[in-house]
Write a structure and sequence with these properties.
- By secondary structure, the chain is an alpha+beta fold.
- 23% of the residues lie in helices and 28% in strands.
- It has 2 helices and 6 strands, in the order ββββαββα.
- Strand 3 and strand 4 form a beta hairpin.
- The N terminus is likely disordered.
Length: 110
Amino acid sequence: MELLILLGIAALIKGATSGSSGSQSTRLPEGYLFSHEKVGDQWRPYIMSQPDYNGRDEGLVTTHRLPDEDDRLYVCWDRPLKSREDSETVAARWATLTDQYIRTGQTFGD
């Protein structure tokens, strides 16, 4: 079943698709797609698709990504995400910072 909603997270998130097993996906206008999934008592924004890094360093530390036990990448953040809303907010922020990095080479902490 598909559910389309409009979210106001920094005007970046356009819609969501409901998946199976309680997972949800959020699409951002720049070609990002996230699957927000609960793992234990925390949420993870899994990166389903994103723009190419165009020659920039794609290292996991530089790009703030982590692999899970199945090598699926999710957004690395500085604290546990306790709600789906937190996961969506972090995904939107990560996408914004990643776009900035791709365009300028400026890393997240710069």
